[in-house]
Automatic annotation (TrEMBL):
InterPro entries: UDG_Type-4/5, Ura-DNA_glyco_family4, Uracil-DNA_glycosylase-like, Uracil-DNA_glycosylase-like_sf. It comes from Jiangella asiatica. GO terms for molecular function: 4 iron, 4 sulfur cluster binding; deaminated base DNA N-glycosylase activity; metal ion binding. This is Type-4 uracil-DNA glycosylase. It comes from the Bacteria. One of its GO terms (biological process) is DNA repair. Residues 43-216 form the Uracil-DNA glycosylase-like domain.
Length: 223
């Protein structure tokens, strides 16, 4: 296969709801160029029986090296906030809209770069497969990039964060929709910032408090 063909190949998503099988298949994905520089595919993690699925943007430097989502500094913020409101991390499925780390180099450092529309589109079949496998009752959208890939570019996290919404209300504008419809049209939805935004905030304490308040909306559902 030529380099050009590999760049534009379809994601090799198998017809299965087995998370181990999906994870194994994703390890060979070359649907966009991000695999070329990333250490490995970072697939979602958590049980298929999870009632809550959290979706972020992409793995970071630590996640790229270790192979698991949300295990770096932002992941520690997320885990701390979840514990504070009583959400169980081991019973939650966590994943990203893009499964490879996109970065630029500054000396020895690898600096995060935002995935573009083509990269989000190339990875979207994996997210659809995860949603179909887990079928969560609640979706937690972490940040603007995750919101755009799941709900469409018109959705504004800043306006809707912390509110309990219904995914069905966003189906018409969702890039997840296909001719077969979205896999989780009955799910509830809560949007908030990505936990990395807490780390970047000038007032980190206030940003963290707001983030915890958003997650409390999920915890109050008491599934």
């Amino acid at each position: 296969m030529s380099e050009r063909a590999a760049t534009h190949a379809a994601a090799p998503v198998p017809s299965t709801r087995s998370l181990p099988a999906l994870r194994a298949a994703a390890a060979t994905c070359e649907a966009c160029d991000l695999y070329r520089n990333a250490t490995q595919t970072v697939f979602g993690a958590g049980p298929r029986t999870a009632t809550i699925m959290m979706v972020g943007e992409q793995p970071g430097d630590v996640e790229d090296r270790e192979g698991d989502p949300f295990v770096g500094p932002a992941g520690r913020i997320l885990e701390r906030a979840m514990a504070e409101v009583g959400l169980s991390r081991p019973r939650t499925y966590v994943t990203n809209a893009v499964k490879h780390f996109k970065f630029r180099r500054e000396g020895k450092r690898r600096i995060h770069e935002k995935p573009d529309a083509g990269e989000l589109a190339a990875c979207r079949p994996w997210l659809r497969a995860e949603l179909a496998a887990v079928r969560p009752r609640v979706l937690v959208v972490l940040g603007a990039t995750a919101a755009a890939t799941m709900l469409g570019r018109s959705f504004r996290v800043s306006q809707e964060r912390g509110r309990l919404l219904e995914f069905a209300d966003y189906v018409d504008g969702s890039p997840l929709t296909t001719e077969d419809g979205p896999p989780i049209e009955e799910a509830l939805l809560v949007a908030t910032v990505h936990p990395s935004a807490v780390l970047r905030a000038r007032d980190r304490q206030a940003a963290y408090a707001d983030f915890v308040a958003d997650l409390r909306t999920v915890a109050d559902l008491r599934f």
